[in-house]
Amino acid sequence: MQIFEYNGSALVAMVGKNCFAIASDRRLGVQLQTIATDFQKIYKIHGRLFIGLAGLATDAQTLYQRLIFRHKLYQLREERDMKPETFASLVSAILYEKRFGPYFCQPVIAGLGKDDKPFICTMDSIGAKELAEDFVVGGTASESLYGACESMYKPDMKPEELFETISQALLSSVDRDCLSGWGGHVIVVTPDDITERTLKGRMD
């Protein structure tokens, strides 16, 4: 078993019309044994920017602490929040500088940039960025997430439709992956507000 599969995870971010959604499963496991069913995998950087961290849970928490520290330094120096594109470059640089002993994490970044344009991207454990206009996925359930998102996604969705689409894609994908599951956690972000919901899924 790969170290990336040790805890199991499913992450997806999807773009709508002037909004985005990011979702994760809630399972923390040690291989096939479930440890917790309410584990946080999506972290808030500021009101318009979120990061999901798939992979080894301990590395994800360490990396998040470093990112929050760097973002707070940026806020003090620049007196403004970081743009999603700038934050993606920061994450990439932090991962690449540790490339000989990497954080075993696969980040999924989602944010609202200039003119409320949604930005999503993912990268591998050494910071190679992959930008997308529609959706990005990560974690052990990424293969089935790709299939579900390909079939369900359509451009310029409103927030409610986006929530429904990302929720159905997540729930149908984690059913096909034994290392992730136990419901879901979905955050939909528009220029005006943040909606956070918990999904109930199969509990086996």
UniProtKB/TrEMBL annotation:
Superkingdom, taxonomy of origin: Eukaryota
Membrane-crossing residue ranges in chain numbering: none
Subunit structure and binding partners: Component of the proteasome complex.
Swiss-Prot/TrEMBL keywords: Cytoplasm, Nucleus, Proteasome
Family affiliation: Belongs to the peptidase T1B family.
Main location: cytoplasm
Protein name: Proteasome subunit beta
Job description of the protein: Non-catalytic component of the proteasome, a multicatalytic proteinase complex which is characterized by its ability to cleave peptides with Arg, Phe, Tyr, Leu, and Glu adjacent to the leaving group at neutral or slightly basic pH. The proteasome has an ATP-dependent proteolytic activity. Component of the proteasome, a multicatalytic proteinase complex which is characterized by its ability to cleave peptides with Arg, Phe, Tyr, Leu, and Glu adjacent to the leaving group at neutral or slightly basic pH. The proteasome has an ATP-dependent proteolytic activity.
An annotated GO cellular component: nucleus
Cross-referenced Gene3D superfamilies: Glutamine Phosphoribosylpyrophosphate, subunit 1, domain 1
InterPro entries listed in its UniProt record: Ntn_hydrolases_N, Proteasome_beta_3, Proteasome_bsu_CS, Proteasome_sua/b, Proteasome_suB-type
Top-level taxonomy: Eukaryota, Viridiplantae, Streptophyta, Embryophyta, Tracheophyta
Keyword Nucleus: yes
GO biological process: proteasome-mediated ubiquitin-dependent protein catabolic process
Localization terms from the record: Cytoplasm; Nucleus
Matching SUPFAM superfamilies: N-terminal nucleophile aminohydrolases (Ntn hydrolases)
Keyword Transferase: no
